[in-house]
């Protein structure tokens, strides 16, 4: 049972050194002290009297600290808490731990405070319980003199009988002080816990909970992990009251709570770590191929990866690693807790390289073998009913044909638009198929089968003639609007024509406009002078069931364009222009019911929809609801409690919520980690010297530590290391193509080749360049990692922070890129449709370089590549087109214009009521919404 110490009979001493005469400064430590004192003294937390919480900032001598601790130790009769933050020093010969004071000098341990002496003073006091919190780290140079034996010796100094030890593994003395953040990494998470509480957690935040939550939050961000050792018992002592605790029966049902963290599963690939601030995201997909606003952040690390050589930064949207299927009891180290008379709990978020056997044990599956990533067989298999990552295995999870119930979405943000011609949100593209149909769409199949185009409003796919320039469709019989009137070819034409009216209804992609009318001769239906407002000559409607598209140039991906919401029909009489988004007229199985923008939306059954006319949509739920709430934490709790089934845009779990999910075997069973078809890469603009030299660019590619960059971006849950520019879902991608030995070296740099390329480009001593970075999100972590690895071969990188909202405008201006000297530009990219044209052409076609809104950031201008694009786009055979895109990919690799980093993945939540759940196809790591049902 948790026990909150009597504040009147307890004392706390908070010690911190932020300013050093001879060591690296740690400004965040000063913030730690004031914030932690406030948290411990808060009436609704522990409630210590301010005079019972001594704060010692930047002590100059050991005596100053020890006298204050001795006084507190003699006064406390219940609990004594001692906290230290600052540099940790290790005497290299004897392995003794010293705490850094303001005058401490590296390698001169006598200038610090001996931990053993501090421990003795604490234990000599009258308190029945003692708690020691150490948030410190060791210099990487010091670690170079230490072997494993030395590390174990330091750990043993901290341990005494009745202890509970947590230790992490940074490489450098700066690893726990993320630049730009107010607190050190460990204390920052501790403060968030004390202030914000744990939804669904216990009334008191005992040490069991502190360990689980801090561990989970740090792992979700890929930061140094507090590793535990316990010789006796400690977990029942509480540090504070839970700010989010509610008595049973009050408020919504709390999410299931599991205080014991799940040891990370092992992967056969290379471990790295860090995550998707909230969310990650994990996990930050960038713009789609028409330069839309960036998506949410990338997902987070799966396990206890090797620590990066960079200083971890703030990560948006982290996605922690769940234990697949729940951890086996034999592979989870049991933790027994209680209270001992002399209790010292050391939370050492510091740099002691550990080699703990229990960590090795936890990195195996139930059979004792290291699990490998599953590979799709290409055929759907009988699906499970639950399990971690089950919905990504080419199978349907919880298959069912049972109709009824309400499918409940939650969303932080309102849709960019519910108007199918105006939306450019991947989540809304998926959702809009409930009320908007197209001539063709994507097959309702899991895995790669979901990329197959199949007829929807049309009886069959197009009859393609005239060398690929004419597409003819015959409409199905029985297709109707929500008023029962038939859907006509004119309705489809009119809906597509609305794309031309960007002045009155802006938004959404324009690739259909570019394919049908590249000269923009048509002015849109609202300025159309023809009587029927159907004056676009590129689309013909010769009879009541036929529609013909006439392209000026052949385009083998035209049907992919027609499968997007922008090709949805709109009934001219129901078009309300900019107000249409409030109540789109339905051609699908559901129609708009009550809608309160920013609050809620309900879709109800369209009674005029003919099931026999729609081979795609199961339409199992009776109704579908969406609730909008900007409170991420409340949304996460509602998802965990089962109040809602899934997040509309699939990025809705905060770092704290994801940490909770991964720490519970039951909750982790409802997480999936699909590929998104996105790519994290860096462009190397050729207008910026010395990136105009191919050998200088190749030096960057060889010197980049992509394993460590993956850690910075989110670890294995954030994606697979990318050896080239074509993600696996795009035809033409070749998993064996490894032009720079990236996979062969498991993502590690090839320093020798990098140095040789520097000599070849006339820069044997390296050069200086600049990386622009958004001032929020996980890209700063990527930049820090690249900066660290490139420095090793003499490439010196400066980092220029740019406001998040201005980033794409800034790097999309070649003149600005050149003026600022941006030689390495971090970018994230998602395709509008799964083809080489949809993914690669905006990035690498020299004819698409623009003065503003440029997406060919590398300014790659190769006529041979441009010609190959023309050939591939005109090709009707997807396999032949894929061969052309493979050639383009090889030529791009030869140019070294891009540094591919990650084929991205996301982490998404699957409610327990959902049926027919699978990922795949063009939905960018989301579930295929139209197949979902619910079980009551």
Question: Which characteristics define this entry?
Answer:
936 residues; alpha+beta; Rossmann fold; D-Maltodextrin-Binding Protein, domain 2; 4 domains; cysteine-type endopeptidase activity; peptide transmembrane transporter activity; Caspase-like_dom_sf; SBP_5
Beta strands, count: 32
Secondary structure: helix percent: 10-25%
Beginning-to-end CA distance, first to last residue: 36 Å
- In CATH terms, the superfamily of the largest domain is Dipeptide-binding Protein, Domain 3
* CATH-defined fold name of the largest domain: Dipeptide-binding Protein, domain 3
Question: Mean pLDDT, nearest integer?
Answer: 81
Provide the CATH architecture of the largest domain. Roll
Which class of secondary structure composition applies to the elements?
A: alpha+beta
- Estimate nothing, just give the exact number of structural domains: 4
GO molecular function, one term: peptide transmembrane transporter activity
Region (Disordered): 244-311, 362-390
Domain Solute-binding protein family: 452-845
Pfam family, one: SBP_bac_5
